Amino acid sequence: MKIAIPMAEGKLCMHFGHCEQFALVDVDASNKITGKTLVTPPPHEPGLLPRWLAEQSVDTIIAGGMGQRAQVLFQERNIKVVVGAPGNEPEILVTAYLDGTLTTGANSCDH
Which of 78, 80, 88, 106 has its Cα between 20 and 30 A from that of 24? Predict the structure, then answer.
């Protein structure tokens, strides 16, 4: 499994489409983190990130906020979207997600 986390200043970026980097976290079959890669996304334009992250073999995205259209585009590519995550480091978020303790709030994006 590969989980993408939009990042700014080392933590989850609350506005998905305008992050500085993505942390791509690899997880093995026993739900253990096996690696993390930081990648810089291409310049933001509507509909680009779902395609680009699918090309990176991403299965799941953990985000603070994401617009409804982006969520639909990810779902069309069979990428699970988790929104409302707190602004923590990627390893903390992924570990909490994997063990079922990730607390999510409201989607911080309203478009």
Answer: 106
